[in-house]
């Protein structure tokens, strides 16, 4: 079966993956309310098509921090792609580069930053960081990322610790033997492989290694160590968006971490406009969470995002088809975006503004 939707990629992945790994990918915090709300919320914005527009040459190419992308899209940072496929992040890097998509590499990648760069030298890559207690390890990673051609840093700020993910607790989830965070010393990663009844190795590891004391004042420390653009991922309010701008951040990723951190936070699509409106017009605001169709990408752009990131669907493609599967997921998203642009009479990204959307159900007059 050739998958025609992202959901069909998901079904193929679920059939292939061990249940505990599927649960780690799909699972989220608490009652998983936020995780369920994410995809549904995009569809609460209906599309307002314009007609009799020349749509013969739609164009969704874009530039982000000086790099060309085939569409305003990318792979969200996700730990341990090796859980999906033995080629791990090297396969994802080839897929992203082939599809002209950005790849945000997680600090918990299972391949080194250098191996990932080598796998797809022409691709656009950023590095995502959690703030570790060991600042020297963090500084060393930043230096390596610069040398290996990573083009921006994404500091994830919604995770003083990993959220309480019940599926992982029930499964006593821990990294299987041989799976490690390749860019960190063993002493900084081994906790994630410890399986104990009723506990999650991933959560315990985060308690050991993440620094929960970090505040806005600490950003200056990171800033001093790099000339790369710095984005914050996990901002959900206008208040924090304004603070981020005051602290000299170069961009934001509006994200509830796919519902994996604080259950009960709003779907990213519901707060995207609030964040966009709180920052200068030229500050790139990205978004992720629950994008499951190119039309969702069009909705994100119409609400003011400069680009959108996709998480789980890329792992689905990777799980059932390696680099080709992940590439198919990204290509499908881009084709669906172009289809949406053509059929809604909005052939350029500039045409995708808030007039492209209306709330659903319609609000009372
Ligand atoms: C994640 N996410 C994540 N985020 C981050 O900043 N660093 C990380 O290491 C990870 N790891 C991770 C692993 C897995 C298996 C998943 C599913 C997610 C969160 C990710 O970047 C993104 O915010 C969400 O996954 C986006 O939602 P969707 O597209 O998965 O619904």
TrEMBL record:
SUPFAM superfamilies: FMN-linked oxidoreductases. Pfam families: FMN_dh. It comes from the Bacteria. This is Alpha-hydroxy acid oxidase. The keyword Flavoprotein applies. Belongs to the FMN-dependent alpha-hydroxy acid dehydrogenase family. The keyword NAD does not apply. Residues 1-362 form the FMN hydroxy acid dehydrogenase domain. It comes from Kitasatospora saccharophila. Keywords: Flavoprotein, FMN, Oxidoreductase. Its cofactor is FMN. InterPro entries: Aldolase_TIM, Alpha-hydoxy_acid_DH_FMN, FMN-dep_DH, FMN_HAD, FMN_hydac_DH_AS.
């Amino acid at each position: 079966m050739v998958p025609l939707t992202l959901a069909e990629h998901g079904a193929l992945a679920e059939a292939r993956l061990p249940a505990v790994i599927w649960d780690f990918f799909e699972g989220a915090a608490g009652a998983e309310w936020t995780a369920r709300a994410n995809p549904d919320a995009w569809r609460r914005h209906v599309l307002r098509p314009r007609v009799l527009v020349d749509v013969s040459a739609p164009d969704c190419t874009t530039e982000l921090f000086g790099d060309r992308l085939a569409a305003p899209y990318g792979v969200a940072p996700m730990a341990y792609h090796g859980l999906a496929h033995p080629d791990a992040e090297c396969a994802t890097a080839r897929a992203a580069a082939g599809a002209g998509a950005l790849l945000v590499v997680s600090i918990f990648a299972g391949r080194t930053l250098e191996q990932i760069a080598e796998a797809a030298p022409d691709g656009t890559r950023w590095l995502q960081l959690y703030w570790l207690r060991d600042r020297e390890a963090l500084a060393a990673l930043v230096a390596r990322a610069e040398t290996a051609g990573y083009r921006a840093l994404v500091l994830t700020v919604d995770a003083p610790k990993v959220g309480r993910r019940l599926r992982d607790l029930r499964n006593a989830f821990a990294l299987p033997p041989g799976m490690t965070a390749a860019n960190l010393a063993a002493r900084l990663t081994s906790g994630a492989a410890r399986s104990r009844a009723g506990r999650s190795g991933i959560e315990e590891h985060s308690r050991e290694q993440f620094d929960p004391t970090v505040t806005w004042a600490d950003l200056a420390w990171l800033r001093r160590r790099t000339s790369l653009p710095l984005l914050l991922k996990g901002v959900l309010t206008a208040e924090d968006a304004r603070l981020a701008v005051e602290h000299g951040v170069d961009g934001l990723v509006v994200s509830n971490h796919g519902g994996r951190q604080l259950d009960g936070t709003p779907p990213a699509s519901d707060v995207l406009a609030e964040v966009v409106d709180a920052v200068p017009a030229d500050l790139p605001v990205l978004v992720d969470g629950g994008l499951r169709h190119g039309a969702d990408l069009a909705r994100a752009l119409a609400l003011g995002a400069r680009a959108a990131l996709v998480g789980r669907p890329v792992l689905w493609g990777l799980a059932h088809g390696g680099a080709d599967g992940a590439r198919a997921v990204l290509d499908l998203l881009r084709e669906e975006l172009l289809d949406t642009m053509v059929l809604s009479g909005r052939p350029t990204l500039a045409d995708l503004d808030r007039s492209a959307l209306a709330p659903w159900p319609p609000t009372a007059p």
